[in-house]
Amino acid sequence: SRKTIREHVAAASDRLRGAGITQSANLDARLLAQHVLGWDAAKLLASASDAAPDHFAHDYEPLVARREQREPLAYITGHREFYGLDFEVTPAVHLPRPETELIVEAVLASAPETQLFTMIDACTGSGNVAVAVAKHRKNARIVATDISGAALEVARRNAARHGVEGRVMFVEADLFGDLGGPVDVVTVNPPYVPEKDRAGLQPEVGGHEPAVSLFGGHNGLDVVERVVREAPPLLREGGYLMFEFGFGQEVEVEALVRSSSALTLLDLRRDLQDIARTVIARRT
Fold it and tell me: How far apart, in whole angstroms, are the C-alpha atoms of residue 190 and residue 193?
């Protein structure tokens, strides 16, 4: 008799554990099955003991093999959720992370609900920050930049998918390029992984995400230093700079921001693990 869906998923989950994926093996195996079947979690649960459809093994097998090679799940399914929105992702873009939602929350808290609100989002990647802000603020006008033309193509599709393409303009640039201000907010999710940590990264990250979106020079702060230097001239007086930084960088990052005469540090926001992640500063 044909294997049930549950048996296929259990076998896949064993393979993933064997490949060193310990924490998410069951979930990943299940999500790949949902992806192949086009089902949600409830439907999969309800039908798990049914025999798998004819095409299932043929479609499921190669995806499990890719995950076994430590390719991130989101690149295999082509989707990642961020701030309650579904984003298309490809290997051209850095995968949106839950901690980056801190930036969106901070922007929305500072942004007026009615009058025009302008923003530059640098290192936009999949466009997740720019699109999430535009989606929640009809009065926002955003210019989003990325050094990668391939990433911007994905970001443009994400803007269109969420109906904000008329209010987010995408520009290929290294950080701010020759953009002018003044704008109300500048957001950046820069590359901040130290080059020296490359070997220690999880294979999902080091082996699959675009290096240009990860590495910020020897100590990881090359781009962060540029952000602190180059963002203030683009901000109106009282405008906000918000950017993400890496685990263990809070002391250096705080010192960098405090040493800028053009910025006042307001807050270092922490993620759910209580790790400082996000600078919120104001143009003096």
Answer: 9
Q: What is the pLDDT of residues 157-208, one digit of tens each?
A: 999 999 999 999 999 999 999 998 899 999 999 988 888 888 888 888 888 8
| Adjacency order of strands within the sheet including 168-172 | 168-172, 140-146, 117-122, 183-188, 235-244, 276-283, 263-270
**Residues 278, 102: contact at Cβ < 8 Å?**
yes
| SS3 annotation, 159-209 | HHHCCCCCCEEEEECCCCCCCCCCEEEEEECCCCECHHHHHHCCHHHHCCC
Give me the count of residues in the chain.
284
pTM: 0.90
* Residue position matching structure tokens 């009809």: 138
* Rounded Cα distance, 183 and 240, in Å: 9
